[in-house]
Design a protein that fits this description.
The complex is a heterotrimer of chains A (300), B (127) and C (159). Chain A is of the alpha/beta class. Chain A folds into 2 domains: 4-67, Chemotaxis receptor methyltransferase CheR, N-terminal domain (Chemotaxis Receptor Methyltransferase Cher, domain 1, Orthogonal Bundle), CATH 1.10.155; 79-294, Vaccinia Virus protein VP39 (Rossmann fold), CATH 3.40.50. Chain A has 11 helices and 10 strands. In chain A, the strands form 3 sheets. In chain A, strands 6-2-1-7-8 form a 5-stranded parallel beta sheet, with helices on one face. Chain A has a 3-stranded antiparallel beta sheet with strand order 3-5-4. In chain A, strand 9 (253-258) and strand 10 (261-266) form a beta hairpin. Chain A starts with a helix and ends in a 34-residue tail after the last strand. Chain B contains 5 helices and 5 strands. Chain B has a 5-stranded parallel beta sheet, with helices on both faces. Chain B has 127 residues and is of the alpha/beta class. Chain C has 159 residues and is α+β, with helices and mostly antiparallel strands. Chain C is built from 3 helices and 7 strands. The longest helix of chain C has 20 residues, at 88-107. The chains are: A alpha/beta (300), B alpha/beta (127), C alpha+beta (159). Chains in contact: A-B, A-C, B-C. Bound molecules: S-adenosylmethionine (SAM) and magnesium ion. S-adenosylmethionine is lined by residues 18-20, 68-72, 76, 108-110, 114, 138-140, 143, 193-195, 210-212, 241 of chain A.
Chain lengths: 300, 127, 159
């Protein structure tokens, strides 16, 4: 088992490079994730491998990749995507009549399922003449490479991809499935570390920041939410993971029900209302039966 | 809710059974399409069929075609669970009337997520 | 466009890995140096499970394991408790489904259309006339060995 000093080193560099908290008790996990890398690097055990990390920046990138959790799936949790097509998109279409373009950000995008899921919904529901861009960002270069390749294994395809969309948007390449060039063209990628100052300027109409805040401690979470506040359009939306919330964290956000999901909107200074002003909170206690739209158009 | 699991492998039927039982389904098993069709003729009314493709006597593709041709079984949700994984095979199965398609090997999560998609398993409602 | 006449061993390895870890979890398969001649002796009593592919591509896929692995695989796939031993028919069924899934995924690597046979499982070497071995994986599963061979019909791959 990994020595306390090696574990301390790993936890420390993970915290510095990704802000992820790796508490004592996770030794087993660290050992399991690093052992294959140690073998690949030709060293005897994980402690020897950690010695390597102290001096080797490339190896350190590999280790960070192996230690972060990239778990994701297509249309993850469904309800947020249903909310996007049924509730958010109609509002955004009304608000962006003049521009006819939507800017979307998938922050902590992992291997890209989140970004491509949104791209499929837009492909199916955007009126003619509209364009969109989805900016997919992550701290892991390996994940960004995967987003650009747009190739997924059989097991990954099984995770939530409706069959009718699989045949519509993917072709088989060897043992993998490749997303269509048309969708890939709508995605841009960039390495962005959420724990560091956010590069670039500009406002997004819809931001997905899902299943990543859970890995940070409360101060980092608070700081990220504060900085995201400046990147979401006044009439735009922020979507967090199903178990994540801005409640008790940041009063610059308003939480609203959208179908069966929650969305967050930047709270406006007193007296100022978002341009659309149409968002009325419906109670999530009266959920989806009122939404006949299904995410999948299943066979007859 | 009732699921009819159709696969010539008992091992596969038992893997699928464990997953859907956890979701609250009652389960009937059949070892091929013919046996499954007989069960339907005898009055079994499943909400869901999980259907293998390659089986002796009657394959899953033929079973789907037969079920879709009969208005009595219009409300049954049909999901292929098979190792057939060419693009063309999936298109064929959907055109024949299958609602969803899972490729073997799969994780339990994959089956659950597909059933959520089909409205046959409850999604978790956020707090 | 190049037409594949046989699946690459890289792809076969990836398919086998994916199927194995998805169904059996835990211990992965690790490539090892070849250490037995599948046609010759076998350490421990041998199980072969095979499917054939016929159509645009003609192939034979065989998974070979010893008795201990055969039972362990069956136990894991059926979710049996450690104490329970798998019956003979259970082993036949589980190995058959394992090779069915591996074979189906290998079939999809090749240009179609092709048809997958029902699995054949025997406690003896399985061969097929006119098929030559084009890919062989020597794998370790813990302290045990697992072999996967893919054969292709010996006639230039035209259809
Ligand atoms: C569990 S995945 C979530 C993927 C996707 N958003 C979803 O909900 O399915 C978490 C992702 O966050 C990324 N990540 C971890 N720390 C990060 C950081 N400091 N900055 C940016 N991304 C980070 C990981 O690389 C990983 O891809
Ligand atoms: Mg079968």
């Amino acid at each position: 088992m990994i020595s306390p000093s090696s574990f301390g080193f790993v936890a420390d560099f993970l915290l510095r490079e990704t802000a992820m908290v790796c508490e004592p008790g996770k030794e087993y996990l660290v050992e399991a994730r690093l052992l294959p890398l140690a073998r690949a690097a030709g060293v005897a055990d994980v402690d020897r491998y950690v010695d390597l990390l102290r001096t080797d920046a490339v190896e350190r990138g590999r280790a960070a990749d192996a230690l972060t959790i990239n778990e994701t799936s297509w249309f993850r949790d469904l309800a947020p995507y249903q909310a996007f097509t049924d509730v958010l998109l109609p509002q955004l279409l009304a608000a962006r009549q003049d521009r006819r373009h939507l800017e979307i950000w998938s922050a902590a995008c992992s291997s890209g399922q989140e970004a491509y899921s949104i791209a499929m919904l837009l492909d199916e529901s955007l009126p003619p003449g509209w364009t969109y861009r989805i900016h997919a960002t992550d701290v892991s270069p390996t994940m960004l490479e995967r987003v650009r390749a747009g190739r997924y294994s059989q097991v990954e395809m099984n995770r939530g991809m409706p069959a009718n969309r699989l045949v519509k948007y993917f072709t088989r390449v060897g043992r993998e499935w490749e997303v269509s060039a048309d969708l890939r063209r709508t995605i841009t990628t960039e390495k962005i570390n959420l724990a560091a100052p956010l590069p670039g300027i500009g406002l997004y109409d819809f931001v997905l920041l899902r299943n990543v805040l859970i890995y940070f401690d409360v101060d980092v979470k608070r700081d990220i939410l504060r900085r995201f506040r400046a990147r979401v359009a006044p009439d735009g939306f922020l979507m967090l993971g199903s178990t994540e919330t801005t409640l008790d964290l940041d009063d610059t956000w308003i939480r609203e029900a959208a179908g069966r999901a929650w969305v967050h909107r930047p709270r406006q200074p007193a007296g100022v209302r978002p341009a659309t002003g149409t968002a009325t909170a419906t109670s999530p206690a009266t959920p989806s039966t009122s939404h006949p739209t299904r995410l999948t158009t299943t066979g007859a | 809710m009732h699921a009819l699991i159709i696969d010539d492998s008992r091992t596969m039927r038992s893997i699928l059974r464990r997953i859907v039982v956890d979701l609250g389904f009652d389960v009937t098993e059949a070892g091929n399409g013919q046996e499954a069709l007989t069960a339907l003729e005898d009055g079994l009314e499943p909400d869901l069929c999980l259907i293998d493709w390659n089986m002796p006597l009657m394959d899953g593709y033929t079973f789907v075609t037969r079920v879709r041709a009969d208005p009595r079984w219009r409300n049954i949700t049909l999901m292929m669970v098979t190792t057939e994984s060419e693009h063309g095979q999936i298109v064929r199965a959907l055109a024949a009337g299958a609602h969803e398609y899972v490729i073997k090997p799969f994780t339990a999560d994959a089956i659950v997520e597909k059933l959520e998609l089909l409205g046959l398993a409850a999604q978790e409602v956020p707090a | 466009m190049t037409v594949l006449t046989e699946p690459s061993s890289f792809d076969v390895q990836a398919v086998v890995d994916e199927v194995w870890t998805t169904f059996l979890g835990g211990e992965p398969l690790v490539p090892v140096a070849p250490d037995f001649d599948p046609a010759g002796t076998f350490p421990g009593s041998r199980w072969d499970a095979a499917v054939t592919v016929s159509g645009a591509w003609h192939g034979l896929i065989v998974v070979s394991v010893n008795d201990a692995v055969a039972h362990a695989v069956t136990q894991a796939m059926l979710g049996l408790d450690d104490g329970d031993t798998a019956a003979h028919e259970d082993v036949v069924d589980a190995l058959g489904e394992l090779v069915n899934v591996i074979g189906g995924n290998i079939k999809s690597l090749m240009d179609g259309p092709s048809k997958l046979s029902l699995p054949l499982v025997a406690q003896a070497p399985i061969q097929a006339g006119g098929i030559v071995e084009t890919c062989r994986l020597d794998l370790a599963w813990g302290s045990h060995r697992v072999w996967v061979t893919v054969g292709t019909r010996d006639e230039g791959g035209t259809s």
